[in-house]
Every structure is written in C-alpha cells, then in structure tokens.
Amino acid sequence: MAKKRKKLPKEVAVINADNCTGCDSCLEVCPVDCIYKVPGEIISGLQSWCEIDVERCVGCEVCVHIPTKKTDPYELVVCPWDAIEMVPTIEVGQYVAEKGGPPEYIAENWERVVEPAIQMAQLAAQQ
To answer: What is the second-level CATH architecture of the domain 11-126?
Structure first.
C-alpha cells in the first residue's frame, strides 16, 4: 500500500466499469480525490469510464449518494447509472478483479488496480 493507514474503512467504493459512462458525477463529489477517469479508445463498447483508487478511498459513500438527514425520505443519488457499489473491505480484492471493463485493461493494469485491493482485503482479514 502506498501510505500506511491508521484504520481501514469497513467498506470501500468500487465502480462497475460495464455500467459506467464516464460522466464524472462521482469524480466531482469525491472529498479525497480517489476517483479518476480512465481515458479510452473505444474498446468493448466503452469509450471511457471512472475508476476508484481503493487505497485512497475512505468509505464515505458520497460517490454513491449525498448524505441527508435521517428523517429525509429522499436520497440524492450521485451516479445516474448505478455503477458504484460499496463493498466490504475484506471482499474488495475479488470485486476489483471482477469489476468489468475490457479484460485486456484489467490484465495490463493488474499490479496497479487489483493487487492493492487484494492487499487491502488481506489486511482487513487480519484485523
């Protein structure tokens, strides 16, 4: 992991690349700037999509929905395509490995994208 954390979040956000359109809605609201756009050629029908650096994600859920008062019956959803899921940190390695998108992208970026998620899951399992 790039930086030693004091505490792992219980959950982290993972974007399903197959549902993501690269609209940047989540990127605009992330308070820790852990979401970035993957520039794309048109591969497998995807022009571009967003990805979350799970090592930097704090599990705040703001990319999924804007927090409101508990008495408020309405939820302000951020992603119009339902592409972001909060995943238990202990399971994040598996989710990131299967997050969709072009298989060649995952294979080429395994060390940068998937291995840190696997390491996080292993740390979470030890706690």
So the answer is: 2-Layer Sandwich (3.30)
